[in-house]
Design brief:
Blueprint lengths: L6 E6 L2 E6 L8 E9 L2 E9 L6 E4 L4 E4 L4 E8 L5 E6 L2 E2 L6 E6 L2 E6 L8 E9 L2 E12 L6 E4 L4 E4 L4 E8 L5 E6 L2 E2 L6 E6 L2 E6 L8 E9 L2 E12 L3 E4 L4 E3 L5 E8 L5 E6 L2 E2 L6 E6 L2 E6 L8 E9 L2 E11 L4 E4 L4 E5 L4 E8 L5 E6 L2 E2 L6 E6 L2 E6 L8 E9 L2 E12 L11
Parallel strand pairs: 6-13, 15-22, 24-31, 33-40
Antiparallel strand pairs: 1-2, 3-4, 5-7, 7-11, 8-9, 8-12, 10-11, 12-13, 14-16, 16-20, 17-18, 17-21, 19-20, 21-22, 23-25, 25-29, 26-27, 26-30, 28-29, 30-31, 32-34, 34-38, 35-36, 35-39, 37-38, 39-40
Length: 438
């Protein structure tokens, strides 16, 4: 763990401390303290369990209801179990009764009256508690002897969803029953189908949309009606596509001191964020490196490259609904270089054999050609050439005076060429053309 706004570690007077600011549930887990010196390593462990006080996530709403209609008050809660829930009316705790039901499932507490009477009007208080805290909220129930026009106690909210997923849009409505509902997409009425499924049950109105496409991004409206009037609410749904690659960056070969440009064509919902890594090390823009996004194209430019820039490069692109990555390769082709040259000169006896050799470094494939003066030499009865383990060799047999000259070894690859030479002299041994008389 590195020191930041949340974690702060110290080691003073042989005491190691870790301080965690603003603890939340994500900080639960096993923490390891490791001490190390030249003689060895020692570890110890501690388990942190973060407990969450009881709290109300969504409060019950005040409603007006027509006499003899059903009504449900509902609260959504959170906190470390065990959670205890209670309902009160006008300060008095409500106990189980045949006139109403109370339930608590999946952190949702409900209080339901099947047929309200005027005497059910009043202030209802909900309380949730656990060993670490408690929370309360209140809602006013008003029972009237007349028809009440519908109104939204929970409206639609703006949503962002991922391409291919589904969405459940839900509203809560107060008013006299029965209530009917219609849904609209950009002003056009939606009918139930395999894609759309609407539901209107008492005070809850919902619409499910399956297999979301980009074309499902729109303004959705819920319109509710009863005998006393109507109401509507709207919200925008934006379907976003996670990022991906229409064209991945191609592997490249480059020569030293050149500029390399990797490009990737992106798909998905902008804006994009892009990162590049060499092996596992994240790159930072600077004098020798520049990257970014232009439209739907991500790029990485490397300047004045050398052999150290060879390796695997990973492009990681993300937006607010996902991420994707791909990897490519850069090979820096080094030109040939003679690490061991031919000896400057060599003298051999006529009729003998000789061997010339030199050692060459550089990126494959290296092509080696031998010349005598300006004439290329080819393998045959007199000459045999080889290039193995970076060593270039020419072997010559049955040498004669005309084999003398400048012998040149030339090495070439896509990055460049190099050569070295030696002066080669074939000498005829001395022979007496006339011997002295006795």
């Amino acid at each position: 763990l590195e020191n930041d706004e949340v974690f702060h570690s110290t080691f003073e007077n042989n005491v190691a401390r870790l301080k965690i600011q603003n603890v939340d549930l994500n900080h639960s887990g096993r923490y390891t303290c490791q001490a190390k010196n030249e003689s060895g390593v020692e570890k110890c462990f501690a388990l942190l369990l973060v407990q969450e006080p009881a709290q109300i996530i969504e409060k019950a709403k005040s409603v007006k209801v027509t006499e003899k209609d059903p009504v449900t008050l509902e609260c959504t809660v959170a906190g470390t179990p065990e959670l205890q829930v209670k309902w009160f009316k006008d300060g008095k705790q409500l106990m189980p009764s045949r006139y109403y039901t109370m339930s608590f499932d999946n952190n949702v507490a409900r209080f339901r009256l099947e047929s309200v009477m005027k005497e059910d009007s009043g202030t209802y208080i909900f309380k949730v508690e656990n060993d670490f805290g408690s929370s309360t909220c209140e809602a006013v129930l008003t029972v009237l002897g007349q028809s009440i026009p519908p109104s939204f106690t929970k409206k639609l909210t703006k949503k962002d969803k991922i391409l291919g997923s589904s969405i459940h849009m839900e509203c809560k409505v107060s008013g006299s029953l029965p209530i009917t509902a219609k849904w609209y997409k950009d002003g056009k009425e939606i009918t139930d189908s395999m894609k759309y499924r609407s539901l209107c049950h008492e005070n809850t109105v919902s619409l499910d949309v399956n297999n979301l496409e980009l074309a499902d991004s729109a303004n959705y409206t819920c319109s509710v009606t009863n005998v006393a009037g109507s109401d509507s609410c709207s919200a925008v749904l934006t379907v976003k596509e996670p990022p991906g690659f229409l064209a991945k960056p191609e592997s490249q070969q480059a020569v030293p001191d050149s500029t390399v440009e990797f490009k990737a064509v992106l798909k998905g919902t902008p804006p994009f964020k892009i990162k590049w890594f060499k092996e596992d090390l994240e790159l930072v823009s600077g004098p020798n490196c520049l990257f970014g996004v232009e439209g739907s194209t991500g790029f990485l430019n490397l300047y004045s490259v050398d052999a150290s820039k060879s390796g695997h490069y990973t492009c990681q692109v993300s937006n607010d609904v996902g991420s994707d990555s791909c990897t490519t390769t850069l090979s820096i082709t080094e030109p040939p270089k003679f690490v061991k040259k031919l000896e400057p000169s060599k003298v051999v006896k006529q009729g003998d054999s000789a061997r010339l050799e030199c050692k060459i470094s550089g990126s494959p494939e290296i092509k080696v050609v031998w010349y005598r003066n300006d004439t290329e030499l080819h393998p045959g009865e007199k000459f045999q050439m080889s290039f193995l383990d970076s060593v270039a060799v020419i072997e010559m047999r049955h040498l004669a005076g005309e084999d003398s000259g400048d012998y040149i070894c030339e090495a070439q690859n896509p990055a460049g060429r190099a050569s070295c030479s030696t002066k080669f002299l074939v000498k005829e041994p001395p022979v007496f053309s006339r011997k002295p008389s006795p």
